[in-house]
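User: I'm writing a tutorial on reading structure tokens. Could you give me a worked example: one chain, its sequence, then its tokens, then a sentence or two explaining what the tokens reveal?
Assistant: Sure. Here is the example chain.
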Amino acid sequence: CIATDHITVLGKKVGFMYREQSENQEDSGWRFFSGEETQDYVDDPTNMDIYSLNTIANYDPTIIPYLNAAIGSSFGRVKGTNR
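And here are its predicted structure tokens:
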């Protein structure tokens, strides 16, 4: 999966996640963001990296129930909650 440094470096919770067609067999297709990133931030590839899906689930276990969702799915956190 791909996740921004907001999650892996700054320790923010996943605020928005979506699943697209995977790029290769090792890619789950999931993309994770805090929801606070600007477009300029996201456009800079040095602000994100490739991770094991398990790694991001360890950072934010609230994503786990959604990980089997179909390609094309997207989810946003209800602000101030774990939903």
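What the tokens reveal: The radius of gyration is 12 Å. The longest helix spans residues 53-59.
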